[in-house]
Amino acid sequence: MTATKPERPQGAAADALLKLGTFLRRGEASEDLSRIFLRGGREGDAFYRDRWSHDKVVRSTHGVNCTGSCSWKVYVKDGIITWEAQQTDYPTTGPSSPEYEPRGCPRGAAFSWYTYSPTRVRYPYVRGALLALYREAKARLGDPVLAWADVVEDPERARSYKRARGRGGMVRAQWPEVLEIMAAAHVHTTKRYGPDRLAGFTVIPAMSQVSYGAGTRFLSLMGGTILSFYDWYADLPMASPQIFGDQTDVPESADWFNAGYLVMWGSNIPVTRTPDAHFMVEARYRGQKVVAISPDYADNTKFADEWLAVHPGTDGALAMGMGHIILREFHVERPEPYFIDYVKRFTDSPFLVSLEERDGGYVPGKFLTAADLPDHADVENAAFKTVMLDGDGAPFVPNGTLGDRYGEAGKGRWNLDLQGRDPLLTLHAEGGRAVEVLLPRFDVAPGTEDGDAGQHVGGAGVLRRGVPVREVAGRLVTTVFDLLLAQYGVGRPGLPGQWPTGYEDPTQPGTPAWAAEHSGVPVNAIVRIGREFADNARRSKGRSMIVMGAGTNHYFHSDTIYRAMIALVTLTGCQGVNGGGWAHYVGQEKVRPITGFQQYAFALDWQRPTRHMISTAFWYLGTEQWRYDGLPAQALTSPLATGRFAGMTTADTLVESARRGWMPSFPTFDRNPLDLTDEAAAAGMEPADYVVQELREGRLRFAVEDPSAPENFPRVITVWRSNILGSSSKGNEYFLRHLLGAESAVRGPESPPERRPKHMVWREQAAEGKVDLLTCIDFRNTSTTLYSDIVLPAATWYEKHDISTTDMHPFVNSFNPAISPPWQTRTDFRIFQDLAAKVSELSVAHLGKRRDLLAAPLNHDTPDALATPHGAVPPLEETPLVPGVTMPKLITIERDYPATLAKFNALGPLTDSLGMVTKGVRFMPDREVAELAQRNGRVVSGIAEGRPSLDRDTKAAEMILALSGTTNGRLSTQGFEDMEERTGTRLADLAAESESVRVTFADTQSRPTSVVTSPEWSGSETGGRRYTAFSTNVERLKPWHTLTGRMHFYLDHDWMSELGETLPVYRPPLDLHRLYGDPVPGDTSPSGDPTAQGHAEVAVRYLTPHSKWSIHSEYQDNLFMLSLSRGGPNIWMSPQDAAKIGVRDNEWIEAYNRNGVVVARAVVSHRMPEGTVFMHHATDRVVDVPRAETSGQRGGIHNSLTRVLMKPTHLVGGYAQLAYAFNYIGPTGNQRDEVTVIRRRSQEVEY
Q: Rounded to the nearest 5°, which phi and psi values hold at 19?
């Protein structure tokens, strides 16, 4: 093809015109004027191209308690993080399930805002008043430790800087000086008061395990106290260990897709489980029915097929109403074979319970055990071997009870094999004997008899209902199942007592009509949903699931709520079945590589055990809230109680629990534990013997008996990866006044003399400013940094190495630095490493080598669970002091303080000499330790010579992964083989396909890496199946870690009986009006507050759920989230309540009660039920918090209106599944029973 040149126009005039045109437009004309050449032209879009260009992409994740643990791409240009996006390389879930990817949420996609935000902490800061005092003392004395002592031991000087907390005045300082102050505080406190006066608070290790573990490792090596978080958050479901003997093992989110019927009950999946919500939505397309149960029209409700609008805190009644339907229709009238077989094999339903005669009837007593049978009384652990009747009515002790778990005789017998026997589920038979049992109820109108003790929570009464009985070994017995039917009001022919006339009978507890009266859910809805739930389980063989969470778990009586809810999945054979069971989600709780993590985080490679403490008790005592509480323990007890708690407050029950060794208690004694060992040596005695002697003689006391004494104060507290004063500080104003000595808005009086504890010293002046040093390590300014003495700048999640796991998926994700920590920020790992170095240096002159005496509680998954036969508790004053049986274990530990850094930086010898134990399963990682030394290198000198090095965060991550069964197939197989010796059943094949798997940190850097099936957890991922809890128990007949080896409906400990909670029972929210004189919800009468005169007021229930704009990864102060929400503090309320006080949407209001004051904007919404308000967790006091008219101070945070209340049954220990374990069992920081008064305030606000 030939190109032809266009002919040019002829004539000079035409040429002139074309040349003129070249001046009228951009470009360069060709010589013949036929073409125009343009250069450039894309400058206009250079900004957009530059915006999305990048130099590198780095894989990382978010270390937050949002449960997502999502893998992200972090884009970097010119050393600046520009944006982030979701990774899309997750391993597949297979052809029959939706995939996990892409997973993430808008909050995570905006996290990089924090890297360069105005809230970023860039440098170390010290409170100016403290720094001036320290520098003066240091210049005068020369020694940092002596200088610190000079400041804090002078009451006036100490008070001067403590009063400045919360008032600004922070000044920049250099890292060496700040670390010197911190180290001096740790060394002086250890020397003067004891290492158990050091405490560290950090949360949710799963979200960044090395960062958590670095701080707790340092504290463990010091002998400091590591505070729990799960119970303190009130996220810990006490019902889980009570029922399962295990804590919060749940299905991964992909297993929701396998459910045929899904109930969202107290869990708002689209808001709090955003990356996983698609599994629930997609499952609806294949026929899954979804039911939402919540008091408000929540975000998840729009995805549901039905919404049950339950009254707040009455979920237990609703669950019992549904349970009544299931028991009557599927167990009694038309017994479903699958359900009957399931409860016989996997629950305590067939086990025998003794009945004790009382008041013309009988009360349920203790489980019948082998110790009660003449032919079995002498067998090993007879008191812990519970009894069934076989089909011929003969008593027998089945395999799998707690008595088989320990001792030689139980080897090979700890399994659920009934060996061909078919146990009797019920003793009901035509013409058989029956008696009336007396059962407590707590739903009647309270009486006023007996003063405070008669002011029962919701009112108490007695039910008289019949159960079939037989006599065995001279004892009258019935089965747990028969008691359960009586409790739920399911009658049968020939049984005496008072029974419902039908579903529509509202007078008898257990019926749908009774449940409707309390919960507000219509009778027909209760009947229909209960029936559908069970029928789906019947047809699908257990694929009905309940997703539950904080909405139901944050109440004082949350354990009774959960026991009633979990009974629904147990009675229908759903637990341990893919697509079924309970699914409790409240945080990123699952540390999948748990064994290696515990070795690292708690320094178990160097010393055992460490000081683990129940946070709720620590803060309850440390903030002096016990002085304001005064709740008579008897006010909580059953009408059938024996008077065990007469004259005691709930604080007294905490003292008793500590003295019995049930719960840990740190500080432990009113003397330095280092000095106690010295005194014992001087007396020529073993430390344990010496302590027992001193206690008997009354010269030594537990610190819990006198928490206001200066020698018992917590002295040094370090907070990292957490914002306690802006997030979880239940009773925030008490924290400010008593723990910190700062300005507070506490409004309630202390307890009058008649309501004070009888086992605690009452000092006329409450302590204020107990803590000498509060340090906060964070990457953003928070409420906690405002009150801290030292604020250290932490690296963010895009600036460090770490690992993350979750219960929502089976992958290990890594953190990797997209940029180096900017300004003067440092990683958590490096901060504690540097602190350990300075402590080692100062310890040479001040501490040296010392012996520490550690008082450890009776532990879960150990023979300690055998300490209390039959759960029978004799009076404390009649109990001999026997360490490890009737009081804490007393363990001596050698501390080499100058070697703290050397130990921090190396794997100690105990890991491969004593081995490792997780949940009773033993591991010996000799080969792994040798391989770790090759990978990490060996220490070349000093106390750790030849040991594997841990001097970098990546090496710590390698250790965690190498020493855990979930990430090391050889250890998983070894653990299963160890378990097989005890069970006598086949288990190791579950890990056979993964025996060669070794997950390394490099693996997690390249992709999300799946874990393998391990005995550390109760479910199986073998063959690519989706994880669900307790599938190993159901499929392989491995017992639960309980008294009977089965899931429990019945709990026979004396304290459970005293509170009337041996069986699932409905207990309403606390009646704070009768217990404390607080207003009744709905009351509009004047409160009497002087600033409220002339203002209408209304009393409402006060709840603190999560907000879609402040779930952990974004917090509330992120500019994007503030733009999407109202910004600053707000309280959601109903139009009806708003009308009562004349407030319109977005107007300023004040909320106040005995605990404090909050100023917020009103969000008036029809989603809210009348009588209830929400203030979302967590709203920091750093954004838009004006001065309150009520207190004259800047309004508080959501926890300014809450407080800590102790429930005695949460303090039980030393018995079967109720024995203590860290973050397993303990009193919860519940806050959902609170009531507050709200009024409209002046719309002119001051800051």
A: -65, -35
| Alpha-carbon span 367 to 357, nearest angstrom | 15
What share of the chain in percent tops pLDDT 70?
Answer: 98
Q: Which residue carries 């000044």 as its tokens?
A: 171
Strand partners, 308: 293
For residue 900, the SS3 value is: helix
123, with CB counted inside 10 A (0-12, 13-18, 19+), is: middle
Span 404-426, pLDDT tens digits: 999 999 999 999 999 999 999 99
- Among residues 576, 467, 580, the alpha carbon closest in space to that of 1020 is found at 576
Q: Report the range of poorest mean pLDDT among 101-110, 164-173, 365-374, 1119-1128.
A: 1119-1128
Q: What is the DSSP string of 234-256?
A: T-S-THHHHHHSSS-----GGGG
Confidence of residue 1240 (pLDDT cuts 50, 70, 90): very high
pLDDT digits (tens, 9 = 90+) for 120-144: 999 999 999 999 999 999 999 999 9
3-state secondary structure 652-709: HHHHHHHHHCCCCCCCCECCCHHHHHHHHHHCCCCHHHHHHHHHHHCCCCEHHHCCCC
DSSP code, position 1050: -
Q: Which of 900, 1216, 1178 is closest to 244 using CA atoms?
A: 1216
How far is the C-alpha of 434 from the C-alpha of 144, rounded, in Å? 76
- Contacts for 46 with CB less than 8 Å, ≥ 6 apart: none
Whole-angstrom CA distances from 1109 to 279, 629, 728 are 22, 34, 17
Give the integer Cα–Cα distance in Å for 430 and 468: 10
Helix axes 209-222, 828-846, angle to 10 degrees: 10
Beta strand 1148-1153 pairing with 1235-1240: antiparallel
What are 171's strand-pairing partners? 126
What value, to the nearest 5°, has the Cα angle with vertex 1136 and ends 1130 and 1140? 85
| 1132: enclosing H helix or E strand | strand 1130-1133
Q: CA-to-CA distance for 62 and 493, rounded, in angstroms?
A: 60
Place of tokens 């965690």: 960
Residue 850 DSSP SS3? strand
- Farthest-apart Cα atoms in the chain, separation: 132
- Spatial contact of 462 and 440, defined as CB atoms under 8 Å apart: yes
Q: What span, in angstroms and rounded, lies between the C-alpha atoms of 720 and 211?
A: 9
Q: Tell me, what amino acid is at 1105?
A: P
Is the pLDDT score of 456 beyond 60? no
C-alpha distances out from residue 611 to 614, 847, 849, 915, 1062, Å: 10, 19, 19, 20, 31
Angle between helices 953-962 and 926-936 (to 10 degrees): 160
- Separation of alpha carbons 114 and 939, rounded Å: 38
**Does residue 22 surpass a pLDDT of 90?**
no
pLDDT at 7: 55
HSE-up of residue 338 (Cα within 13 Å, Cβ side)? 17
Give pTM, 2 decimals.
0.95
